Amino acid sequence: MNLINIALNKLVTTDNVIFNTYTPDKIVNGNLDSTDGFLCKDNGVFVLLKIILDNPYLIKKVKLKQLNYNNIRRCKEFTIKASNDNINYNTILSETLLNNDDLQEFILNVNKAYKYWCILIKNNYSGETGWSNGIGEFQLYANESKYLINQNKDYYSTKTNFLNLGQPVDNTELQNWYNKYGTDDINIITENLNNKEFPMSKNENGIWETDFELDINEVKDNIKLADADENNKSIKYNCNDYRILDLCDDEFDIRMLKEK
């Protein structure tokens, strides 16, 4: 399986007070020097750092590295949590980071993709509560491959919906379809889903529109705008339970695009 660190140079936020130049972005910059990372200014408080990915990813493993400041490694007990709405978080892992300068790996048993990933640092190796917490590196590893369904020569989306994309005019359009309508976890086609997502694009007047028509009769409650960033928007709504697999023909192919 081709796993890559998809947290590299992504946006990191914190509500903790930053000490000097030990800013949150340094936990995802790929610098494995033990003196590089995030450090909280306040002593004896929990540190919460949040990585915001471009899209939900099924994370297979995480790698963490200590920040060594004043000969004290600043992370001991920690918890990793994940969410898709930045409100309701699920606990993914609670562990202890060893007192060394190695890049330490933790395998995750996760069957759902998430967009928001947090690490809560509870204490450090000072042996006292009066020293501040921090961490050197926080890496998230996922399979960067994307999947679409192909049947009767047409391509279909797998990203929380089953939309007929048709036939691409060239490889560039097909690759764009993989990135926009594909999922990195093909197991989603066998899952019971209760919501649908419709990606959007800007029209010639710069107004965002859905790429496909909605069936308003299947909307169970409010339609929500999922604003991933200024170039990536979609709408979502809850609906009756369905499985993508049940919507496929008896014969279909699963096509994969592997990022280079």
TrEMBL record:
InterPro entries cross-referenced by the UniProt entry: Galactose-bd-like_sf
Gene3D superfamilies: Galactose-binding domain-like (2.60.120.260)
Name of the protein: Uncharacterized protein
Organism: Clostridium sporogenes
